[in-house]
Amino acid sequence: MSALRPVGLVADRIAWEERLLIGAAPAFGLRIDWVNDEALSLGHPDAPAIKGYDTLLVRSRSYTRGGLIATLAEAAGVPTLNTARAIHACENKAALRALLQTAGVPVPDHRLVLSRKDFEKALADLPLPLVLKPVFGGMGKRVTLIRHADTAHSVYDYVEDLAHAFEQASLVEPYLGGSSVRCLVVGRELIGAAEFESGGSDWRNNAALGNKNRAIAHDPDVAKIVDGVVDVLGPGIYGVDLFATPDGYVVNEVNHAPGFRAVASATGTDIPSAIGRYVQELLA
């Protein structure tokens, strides 16, 4: 029997998705080891913490850590999945939307907010209700729905007073409703899609919040947008989040280290095997 190909799974912890990826790996000739992203000390050309791996599967949950690790790993000669370029793009919502928009991929109307003056201009430009969200962040954290003009500036006080300068960079966009579609992409293939609906007292429909979900059938409009995203970022493993609008779907964000428990549950898709097969093909 040939030896298993070593793959480093870079993450801050082993959660449900990581356990399944590690368990599925041997069937595809792989051995996946957890590599703690808090103990790499990258920068040395030999990068001893990662040099023994044929590739790194970067699943850092930090909104800055993954791109930095991938950049230094690639510089040390160790390929990463996703690529450093793709991860950096996904970590920055404003930069990602600019890339997609330039390529003709639809994104929500939005304004970059770096100051109180920017915020005031966004309020004047866009109709209420509005969503205020950080440029760097995920899992629905620090995303705020602004329903009334008379409370908007009080909301922005928290951004101005409690966030560090790096975290104050925000987007303001129209509220597009209480549902979204999460598309799981492996390579270039859309392998599963589910609709998430907000429930209870929480208006957010983020999959990480455990809201209601259901599988959706193949939709050529969804597939076309997903293809456009992959054309921009390159093949990889992505969670592409879409909102439905009267003019069609728009890309809200793309997650470079997607949680896939909810999509797997809704669709029955064996996502760990799809990822294992993709990594096997890349290393062939």
TrEMBL record:
Bilayer-crossing regions: none
Source taxon at top rank: Bacteria
Signal sequence, renumbered to the chain: none
Keywords: ATP-binding, Ligase, Metal-binding, Nucleotide-binding
UniProt GO MF annotations: ligase activity
Domain ATP-grasp: 97-280
NCBIfam families to which the protein is assigned, alphabetical: rimK_fam
Annotated protein name in UniProt: RimK family alpha-L-glutamate ligase
Organism this protein belongs to: Streptomyces cavourensis
The organism's taxonomic lineage, starting at the top: Bacteria, Bacillati, Actinomycetota, Actinomycetes, Kitasatosporales
